[in-house]
Amino acid sequence: SDLDAIATRTLSSHALSWKEKSAVCVVMASDGYPGSYDKGNRITGDEKASERSDIQVIHAGTKLDENQNVVTNGGRVLGVVGQDTDLKSAIDRTYEAVRDIDFGNHYFRTDIGAKAFSSQTH
C-alpha cells in the first residue's frame, strides 16, 4: 500500500494512485474537549457507519475496555471520512455516517466544507 511504501522509505519506486473524488473528514470529539472530558463512554454505531459506501471511520481517542467494547479515551475520538463524486455529496455522505455514531456527550462541527459554497472570498 501507499502507507507501507512511506513507512519502508520505498515511495520513490511506488506508483501512487488517485481517486477522482472529493473527500471530507468530520472529527467527533468528547464534550468538554479541549478542556476536561469524560473517558470510557461506549461508542456505538461506528461499525454501521463503516459499512456505508465510501465511508471510513478512523479511531483516534479510543480503546477497548475490559469487555472488549470500544470506548472513548481521548478528546478527538473519531474521524469520519466520506468520499463522493463532488464536494457537496461527500459532505452529505459524511454527515449521514456521523449521525450513525453515538458515545454519550459528544460534538462535531456542522460547517465542514461549507466555505466552498460561500459567495464570500476569504
Stretches where pLDDT is under 50 for at least 5 consecutive residues are: none
Q: Average pLDDT across residues?
A: 92
- Count of helical regions: 3
The percent of residues in helical segments reads 10-25%
Tertiary shape:
globular
Q: What's the β-strand tally?
A: 6
Please state the CA-atom Rg, rounded to the nearest Å: 17 Å
Please state the structural category. alpha+beta
**Biggest β-sheet strands, sense, barrel:** 4 strands, antiparallel
Order of helices and strands: HEHEEEEHE
Distance between the termini: 37 Å
- What percentage of amino acids are in beta strands? 25-35%
Give the arrangement of secondary structure elements.
Layout: H1 2-7, E1 22-30, H2 46-51, E2 55-59, E3 62-64, E4 70-72, E5 76-84, H3 87-98, E6 106-107
Antiparallel strand pairs: 1-5, 1-6, 2-5, 3-4
Structure write-up:
It is a single chain. The protein is α+β, with helices and mostly antiparallel strands and 122 residues long. It has a 4-stranded antiparallel β-sheet with strand order 2-5-1-6. The protein has a two-stranded antiparallel ribbon with strand order 3-4. A hairpin with a 5-residue loop joins strand 3 and strand 4. The protein starts with a helix and ends in a 15-residue tail after the last strand. The model has no long low-confidence stretch (mean pLDDT 92).
